[in-house]
Amino acid sequence: MRTLLPLLALLVASAVGAQQPAGAGPAGDPSPHSEARLVADVARVAPGDAFDVALEVDVEEGWHIYWLNPGDSGQPVSVAWTLPESAQAGPLRFPPPARYVDAGLVTYAHSGTPSFLTRIQVPPDAAEAVEIAAAARWLICADVCLPASADLSLTVPVGAETVPTGTLDAARAALPASAEDWTASAAVADGGYVMTLDPPEGVSLEGAMFFVDESGVLDHAAEQAFEQEGGAWVVRLASSNYATTVAQELSGVLVAGETAVELTVPVSGAPAVATAGGGEAAAFGFWGALAFAFLGGVILNLMPCVFPILSIKILGFVKGREQSRTELRTHGLAFGAGVVLSFLALAGVLLALKATGDGAGWGFQLRYPPVVAGLAALMTVLALNLLGVFEVGQTAASVGGRLDRREGLSGAFLSGVLAVIVASPCTAPFMAGALGFAVVQPAPVALAVFGALGVGMALPYVLLSFKPGWLERLPRPGRWMETLKQVLAFPLLATAVWLVWLFGRLLDVDAAALLLMALVTLGLAAWAWGRWSRPGLSRRAMMMGRTAGGLAAVAAVALVATAFAPEQAAWVDFDAAEVDALVEAGEPVFVDVTATWCLSCQVNKQTSLTADAVREAFDAVGVTTVRADWTDQDPEITAFLDRFGRNGVPLYVFYPGDGAEPVLLPEVLTPGIVLDAIAAAAPQTASR
After folding, report:
1. pLDDT tier for residue 413 given thresholds of 50, 70 and 90
2. Per mean pLDDT, which of 196-205, 281-290, 316-325, 437-446 is the most reliable?
3. Strands of 105-110's sheet, edge to edge?
4. Which of 61, 148, 655, 672 is the most exposed place for a label (fewest CB within 10 A)?
5. 365 or 135: which carries more pLDDT confidence?
6. Crossing angle of the two packed helices 443-466 and 325-355, in degrees rounded to 10
7. Alpha carbon 593 to chain centroid distance?
8. Distance between the two ends of the chain, CA-based, in angstroms?
9. Number of Cβ within a 10 Å radius of residue 218
10. Stretch (H or E) spanning 285
11. pLDDT tens digit string along 84-100?
């Protein structure tokens, strides 16, 4: 919510009209307030030729459907095609959208009769008519949002030559044009990007709008002021508050009056240039990328985020000077294998995410809160181990040298794995170009570049294991080693602090506090485990101590789990049977049927349902608040909507209790509307 007063003004102004049960189309209508059809631009098609098919949607006045990037809310139009064998359908091409502003939230949508075109390629051996089926889905919104669908079909005869009809000439003309005659560039700037455009002569960008085609890149509500500077046009574009990385390119549609063009503009100054022809490594091709990756891996060892883990490995080398030459080399190779294989695994996951359209980049795993929480816990446990709170391997050490060696190798390997995980937020000189080259290459090339990065990072430690004489310059083992061991715990604790901060940025400050409490509880578990695992204690004492430690560890996990669902104490997930049982028992119940793509739902949640006064009123009357998330159109929630003759969201149902009839609140809420409904139920609830 960017501004409170405009939002409240909108809600108050629309509340009166919203008192009427609006929005739902006729029962059983799969495409409320809209009608769809398929149109081909040929009367006949020749084998091997291609032709355009359009999904045309007649949208009722006052309603709209959504563009490729719906903006702050909504779902784009989509089509699943069923075609003859060997026939192919191209991507769905969208006309330029319009910008809708509702209570500070911005969406990109279409009204009227938009046409969405697809190019159909007919196989060369086609002998019969081309049968086309399309399962079209869209979301249509006004004050409420309704899912709509249409199962359509079209038959195009096959003949000796293609016969065009010109039916879709206007639809093709409405599509954004190619920007061949334009010059465009973009650069990273404070809080976003600066785009510079040089359009063809006679084209003015006064009042233009750039519609980015991917969510989570730009702030949709930010002002775009195009200004002329030295013959070119310059516009500042603000980053989205939800952006996790710097965009490598800005792709979308620029609309200036009657002019609309498609733009894909590389961004200079991004951490990794994800273009096959740009960056340091691309200038040298494959072998240059390998060299740059290798050098970047070597230098990566000097980055501060790597030191906490590698310092432990160095301590291991110091302790291992009394090992045989073979054992030392084997441990070094195990560490190197952990590093290289981890880089290859990261490359595989990164390429898989890229293939699905996920905008993953270097260090992508640290955008997932569970991963960050797990790493913070691991850093804390390692630090406590170095400080002597507990020891690992005392029992195993007594089993014998053979098992001890096996554990040592696995420990060296895992140290390499952990070093890579912790190193991933950092980049070193030469790395950016190599990584940018790798992620747009075929998988074998990308894996080779990531492998070279791992070899470069592991090489110093492998060399040290093969040249143990270099360790002779260090003091002989003694009490100083215990001091060094404890000192090295503090970089690990500092890393844990940074991870807690990152966890809070990904979620919120309350989640960070819960993670801190979980780490304290984890420390209690480690202390209990170490305190009652010392030699000489009775089996009963060990069992009691370890049980206490295990319970504390479980409590730590539970604390972190609550951080991912901070509202669960107030809102319970929808279950029709449970709602019915509460109603039959005379309990007051409030059901919020919502969806992430519903703009009105999100506005109402921010302004009314989460208001302190509303929450306090719910608690005072003893209302059970239930949230039914219809984002994926759950059948059980659909049946609940049908009870009230609705086929869209939002729907707000308040059961006052004691057998009173349910009250339907309007689609647009204010805190006052909700409080009035609760107050009207007070006589029923007061008697319970």
Report:
1. confident
2. 196-205
3. 65-71, 105-110, 98-102
4. 61
5. 135
6. 160
7. 24
8. 38
9. 23
10. helix 285-300
11. 988 999 999 999 999 99
Domains of the chain, start order: 31-173 (2.60.40.1250), 178-268 (2.60.40), 279-368+392-479 (no CATH), 571-686 (3.40.30.10)
Please determine, for residue 354, whether its predicted confidence score (pLDDT) is greater than 60. no
Render pLDDT for 453-466 as a digit per residue (tens, 0 to 9). Answer: 888 888 877 887 77
Query: CA 595 to CA 598: how far, in whole Å?
Result: 5
Residue 502 identity = L
Burial label for 509, CB within 10 Å (0-12, 13-18, 19+), is exposed
Q: Record the tokens describing residue 628, joined without a space.
A: 């039914």
Adjacent-strand bridge partners of 367? none
For residues 316 and 323, is the Cβ–Cβ distance under 8 A?
no
The residue ranges of DSSP E strands in 562-680, in sequence order, are 571-573, 589-594, 624-629, 651-655, 663-665
Question: Which residue shows structure tokens 């509303």?
Answer: 614
Residue 216 near residue 357 (C-beta atoms within 8 A) = no
What average pLDDT score do residues 280-301 get? 68
Comparing 34-43, 258-267, 499-508, 631-640, the range with the smallest average pLDDT is 499-508
pLDDT tens for 603-617 read 788 788 888 889 889
Give residues with Cβ within 8 angstroms of 454, minimum separation 6.
297, 339, 340, 341, 342, 343, 344, 420
Q: Half-sphere exposure (CA, 13 Å, Cβ side) for 175?
A: 17
Question: What's the alpha-carbon Rg for the chain, to the nearest Å?
Answer: 31
* Sequence-ordered list of residues with C-beta below 8 angstroms from that of 533, at least 6 positions apart, any chain: 390, 391, 394, 395, 542, 545, 546
Tell me how far apart the alpha carbons of residues 378 and 373 are, in angstroms, rounded to a whole number: 9
Contact 269, 187 (CB under 8 A): yes
Tell me whether strands 177-178 and 209-212 are parallel, antiparallel or unpaired. Answer: unpaired
Pairing label, strands 98-102, 105-110: antiparallel
Q: Please, are residues 429 and 294 in contact by the beta-carbon 8 Å criterion?
A: no
Determine the Cα–Cα distance for residues 380 and 315; give it in Å rounded to an integer. 18
CB 574 within 8 A of CB 640: yes
Residue-averaged pLDDT of the chain: 79
Six-digit token string for 116: 């969405």
Q: Which amino acid is at 204?
A: S
Residue whose token pair is 């894996």: 447
**Structure token digits, residue 126:** 């086609």
| Amino acid (1-letter code) at residue 191 | G
Give the C-alpha separation, 347 to 258, whole Å.
44
Determine which helix (DSSP H) or strand (DSSP E) holds 153, and give its type and residue range: strand 145-156
**Which of 97-111, 163-177, 397-411 is most confident?**
163-177
User: What is the three-class DSSP state of 556?
Assistant: helix
Q: For residue 454, with 0-12 CB atoms within 10 Å meaning exposed, 13-18 middle and 19 or more buried, which class applies?
A: buried
| Per-residue pLDDT, 437 | 60
For residue 5, what are its two tokens? 């007063």
The number of beta carbons lying within 10 Å of the beta carbon of residue 31 is: 19
Measure Cα distances from 277 to 39, 274, 296, 407, 436 in Å. 40, 9, 19, 46, 10
Contact present, 655 and 684 (Cβ < 8 Å): no
The residue type found at 459 is L
Contact (CB, 8 A) for 250 and 169: no
Cα separation, 677 vs 655, whole angstroms: 10
Q: How many residues does the chain have?
A: 688
Q: Given strand 589-594, what is the order of strands in its sheet?
A: 571-573, 624-629, 589-594, 651-655, 663-665
Vertex 475 angle, CA 469 and 481, to 5°: 115
Of the candidates 386, 338, 636, 334, which has an alpha carbon nearest to the alpha carbon of residue 496? 386
